[in-house]
Amino acid sequence: xxxxxxxxxxxxxxxxxxxxxxxxxxxxxxxxxxxxxxxxxxxxxxxxxxxxxxxxxxxxxxxxxxx
Length: 67
Description:
Distance between the termini: 28 Å
Shape: globular
Order of helices and strands: EEEEEHEE
Number of helices: 1
Structural class: mainly beta
Strand content: 25-35%
Strand order of the largest sheet: 3-4-5
């Protein structure tokens, strides 16, 4: 796992640096998505998370959740 400027970057994740999110392909063809540590620090206290319905396709550039 490489470290870049003190940030740990696991080898099994893909990153969208501009939007501060990561992606991980899971065995069943779906993708797990998360916020980077930087994104959570910038957001402050998270009070709500509303994802789109599971199993739906999301087009590039469109939202998949509201935080």
